[in-house]
Amino acid sequence: MNEIIFLVEDAPEGGFIAKALGASIFTQADDINDLHHQLREAVDCHFEPIDKPKIIRLHFVREEVIAA
């Protein structure tokens, strides 16, 4: 695996929630810098060093509701 993709959403209580696509990895953080740290740590814990992806890609998803 060359890269892993995370869907990142705003958490209801503030901060971010990140969920990996294709792997059982979930983490959350209060700010973007903490999120980067948490994601690296989660990926390190989930994969063996030889199987660890070289790239962590973040896909930010934002829900927005507007009046019709």
Topology as a string of helices (H) and strands (E): EEEHE
Strand order of the largest sheet: 3-2-1-4
Please give the number of β-strands.
4
Quote the distance from N terminus to C terminus: 43 Å
Q: What's the gyration radius in Å?
A: 13 Å
Give the number of domains: 1
Biggest β-sheet strands, sense, barrel = 4 strands, mixed
The best one-word shape is elongated
Percent of sequence in beta strands = 35-45%
User: With helices defined by DSSP (H or I, 4 residues minimum), what is the helix count?
Assistant: 1
Unreliable spans: none
- Helical content stands at 10-25%
Structural class: alpha+beta
- Compute the average pLDDT: 95
Q: What this model shows, in words?
A:
The chain is of the alpha+beta class. The protein has one domain (3-61). Helices cover 22% and strands 35% of the residues. It contains one helix and four strands. The chain has one helix at residues 32-46; strands at 3-10, 16-20, 26-29, 55-61. The protein has a four-stranded mixed beta sheet with strand order 3-2-1-4, with helices on one face. A hairpin with a 5-residue loop joins β1 (3-10) and β2 (16-20). The longest helix has 15 residues, at 32-46. The mean pLDDT is 95.
